[in-house]
Design goal:
With about 270 residues, the protein is an alpha+beta fold. The protein contains eight helices and eleven strands. A hairpin with a 4-residue loop joins strand 1 and strand 2.
């Protein structure tokens, strides 16, 4: 599903990053090709379970070990020796997740996959240590992985994450954003761009969990916010606030009537 509203923003982002490279580096990618480097969103698609990857400890794993384990996962594609966008994406993601009132490991996981087939488990471990090793619980919930080009490409194509390598500047052109995967391994939401809002991640993870990690406060927030797939953000919806207020009012009146009916009658003695 192409989302035309997000294309100009993401294309401009890619162009801006390439333009920031040293003058001597000249990209060979045509400018008109950047529009095809936006996320091609596939909500509801099931991720393949047989993609073989290597984690940051050098262990061979399959995507069946990473997804479909009953908890939502934040999936991000990057390359770990990137000198432009990728570190910014991972740094923003780490900082935003630190403000989400959910428990990493128990309530959600994070999977970062390199799109550069030349990278190794050592590269994965180095970038993980830079952004996600602030405490053992958080580090244990995060998996950084590398893999063969055909394996990573198969996973990225299912997500709708396009990327192209430019040998002239030795960089990959790709969109910025994260994908939220449900506990059953289905694509639930896309959070696009950079500068992640902790509220977007919180609501997206709750949606992806199908409510299994939602508190009463989270349920009320979901009543007031709606997901906008074109921009990959949650937005406040006034109509839903009015409906939520109506529900709370009815609940409060019901509680008052219930409490009043339980008061003992003074004239009964």
């Amino acid at each position: 599903m192409k989302l035309s509203g997000a294309v100009p923003l993401l294309a401009a982002m890619v162009v801006a990053i390439l333009a920031a490279l040293p003058v001597r580096a000249q990209s060979t990618l045509p400018a008109e090709g950047f529009a095809g480097l936006a996320f091609d969103q596939h909500p509801g698609a099931v991720l393949p379970a047989d993609v073989r990857l290597v984690d940051d400890q050098g262990r061979s794993v399959s995507t069946a070990d990473l997804f479909g384990q009953g908890r939502p996962v934040v999936l991000v594609f990057d390359y770990f020796r990137c000198t432009t966008l990728c570190g910014l994406v991972l740094g923003d993601l780490s900082a935003a997740l630190a403000q989400v009132p959910l428990t990493p490991g128990r309530d959600y996981g994070v999977v970062a996959v390199s799109i550069d087939p030349r990278e190794t488990a050592r590269d994965a471990a180095a970038l993980k240590a830079r952004h996600f090793d602030r405490d053992p619980a958080f580090a244990g919930a995060v998996r950084f992985l590398v893999g063969a080009e055909d394996e990573v490409r198969r996973l990225a194509d299912t997500v709708g994450f396009p990327y192209r390598y430019d040998p002239m500047i030795e960089q990959f052109a790709h969109p910025a954003g994260v994908t939220l995967v449900s506990g059953s391994g289905r694509i639930s939401r896309y959070i696009l761009g950079i500068g992640y809002d902790p509220l977007d991640l919180r609501l997206g993870l709750i949606d992806a969990s199908r409510g299994t990690v939602a508190s009463v406060a989270d349920q009320l927030l979901l009543l007031c916010y709606a997901y906008d797939p074109a921009h990959g953000r949650y937005s406040l919806v006034i109509g839903n606030i009015v409906r939520a207020g109506g529900i709370l009012t009815v609940a409060a009146l019901g509680l008052l009537i219930f409490l009043a009916s339980r008061k003992p009658s003074g004239g009964a003695r």
